[in-house]
Write a structure and sequence with these properties.
Number of helices: 10
Distance between the termini: 54 Å
Strand order of the largest sheet: 2-1-3-6-7-8
Strand content: 15-25%
Number of domains: 2
Helix content: 40-55%
Number of strands: 10
CATH class of the largest domain: Alpha Beta
Radius of gyration: 19 Å
Mean pLDDT: 83
Largest sheet: 6 strands, parallel
Low-confidence stretches: 134-146
CATH topology of the largest domain: Rossmann fold
Shape: elongated
Length: about 230
């Protein structure tokens, strides 16, 4: 919450790169009160609950693990009032879209100047979205392909085809086998998998499948809503 003694906005930084976090804290300290840095995702919720910051500046990836699924859970929790500003080293429109879908209010590239940081924080506090360094793609709330509207899994919106591919691969099918089952090429399968990895900030297919395994029940429920192909 806002510091009562000074009236200044409180900021919690969450970044696994300690040198970058220290530099960010130094940049922000002249305008805001930085209440600390959280270097691991596992301790983020507890840090937010104890410090009650106005804004959390959250790195989009921690040691190769995307913070977006946790972001979606935190923003869905009514007990957490903080606004989230996402930082990334990747200039990715898909990643920006995923962050906003999960509840972020601002999306910035690492290395953003002081003015951009201040604008992002002010926009977040006012409930306005702010993006610098990456343009947003059209919302996935719109029908994404001929198989129907996007489906929510793990706080994110997935294309029906992506749900189908992930479910098949969780059954043990390879990429070519999944493609043959769905009547698309292996390149088509790879297109959807690569888009998902980019949106989740996951560098490898193994990590994507680990994420999918953690949401297997939701994927199965989403699969039942996929319109049957003609």
């Amino acid at each position: 919450m806002t510091d009562l003694a000074t009236g200044r906005t409180t900021i919690l930084i969450a970044d696994d790169h300690l040198v970058l976090a220290e530099g960010l804290a130094a940049t922000l300290s002249s305008h805001f009160i930085v209440v600390g840095n959280v270097p691991t995702l596992e301790h983020l919720r507890a840090a937010i609950e104890s410090s009650k910051p106005d804004v959390v500046i959250l790195d989009i990836s921690f040691h190769g693990v995307s913070s977006i699924p946790l972001l979606a859970k935190l923003t869905a929790d009514p007990s957490i009032q903080a606004r989230f500003v996402m930082l990334t080293g990747l200039e990715s429109t898909a990643l920006a879209s995923a962050a906003f879908e999960a509840g972020a209010m601002a999306f910035l590239l690492k290395g953003a100047g002081t003015q951009e940081l201040r604008l992002a924080i002010e926009a977040a506090l006012q409930g306005r979205r702010f993006s610098a360094g990456a343009e947003l793609k059209p919302s996935l709330e719109e029908p994404s392909d001929a198989h129907g509207p996007a489906l929510r899994v793990g706080g994110l919106l997935l294309r029906p085809r992506q749900v189908e591919i992930l479910c098949l691969m969780l059954e043990g099918l390879t990429r070519p086998q999944a493609g043959r089952r769905l009547g698309i090429s292996t390149k088509g399968v790879d297109y959807h998998l690569n888009e998902l990895r980019e949106r989740l900030g996951l560098p490898t297919l193994r990590m994507l499948l680990k994420w999918a395994a953690g949401h297997e029940t939701e994927l199965g429920e989403a699969l039942t809503r996929v319109q049957p192909k003609a």
